[in-house]
Each structure stands twice: as structure tokens, then as C-alpha cells.
TrEMBL record:
Signal peptide (from-to): 1-29
Domain of life: Bacteria
Keywords, alphabetical: Membrane, Signal, Transmembrane, Transmembrane helix
Protein name per the record: Uncharacterized protein
Transmembrane segments: 51-73
Amino acid sequence: MSFFKQAKKYGVTAVVGSVGVLGSAMASAEGTDLTTTIKAALTSGQTNYGLVTAGVITMAALGFGVAMIVGWLRK
């Protein structure tokens, strides 16, 4: 969506405010070392990926276990 369409749809203050927030975020990123920032983001992403993988495997194991227990109880 273009800047002018957003200004028309949401009002000038909302669009200008969001541009100000994004601009200040970009300005603060310039002061830090980008290599450190990228490495921190990669580490965080790998940690999240590991947690999600463990969670999915745990949920599958629990579902399988509950299904087996219910099957044994129905016999």
C-alpha cells in the first residue's frame, strides 16, 4: 500500500507516526554493530526453532500415547 493511500485511509497522523517510529528504529540500528545484531538474531532464531521442534514432537508423542491408552481401555 502506498504512502498516500495509507494517509487517505488511516489519516495523516497515523501514517506520519508510523513513519516516525520506523525511522527512529532504523536510526537506532545504525549505531550498533550489524554483525553482532545479525548473530544475535540467528541465535534467537535457532533457539526458537529448537523449541518449536521439541514442542511438536512432544505433542505428537502425547497424542499417540493418549490414543494407545484409550485403545487399551476399550478392549
